[in-house]
């Protein structure tokens, strides 16, 4: 069960991916020059894609860890402190 915070983070990650792979940003790295050698585009695409995958994996694992933590408002069957 994911809350609104996790959904917002997934949407933000999708927007970041759209911005990183938009043509104007990609065009910044697709300019070869005589001083720097070949285009930086393949390295940029590899690093940006890897970063998006790493962020998605981190968000997913963080959500899985947070789901394993019981809520403070939940009462467990073995919790008899509040029963009379």
Descriptive account of the structure:
With 84 residues, this protein is mainly alpha-helical. It has three helices and no strands. It has helices spanning 4-20, 23-29, 41-68. The protein is elongated and about 75 Å long. The model has no long low-confidence stretch (mean pLDDT 82).
Beginning-to-end CA distance, first to last residue: 32 Å
Average pLDDT: 82
| String of helices and strands | HHH
Number of strands: 0
Q: Could you give a short account of the major beta sheet?
A: none
Structural class: mainly alpha
Query: Helix content range of the residues, please?
Result: 55-70%
Alpha plus pi helix count:
3
- Spatial shape: elongated
Strand content: under 5%
**What does the radius of gyration come to?**
22 Å
Spell out the blueprint of helices and strands.
Blueprint: H1 4-20, H2 23-29, H3 41-68
Give the gist of this structure:
The protein contains three helices and no strands.
Keywords:
84 residues; mainly alpha; elongated
């Amino acid at each position: 069960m994911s809350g609104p915070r996790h959904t917002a983070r997934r949407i933000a990650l999708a927007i970041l991916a759209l911005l990183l792979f938009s043509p104007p940003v990609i065009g910044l790295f697709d300019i070869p020059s005589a001083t720097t050698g070949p285009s930086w585009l393949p390295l940029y695409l590899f690093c940006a894609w890897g970063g998006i995958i790493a962020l998605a994996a981190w968000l997913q694992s963080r959500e899985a860890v947070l789901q394993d933590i019981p809520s403070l408002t939940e009462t467990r069957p073995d919790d008899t402190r509040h029963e009379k």
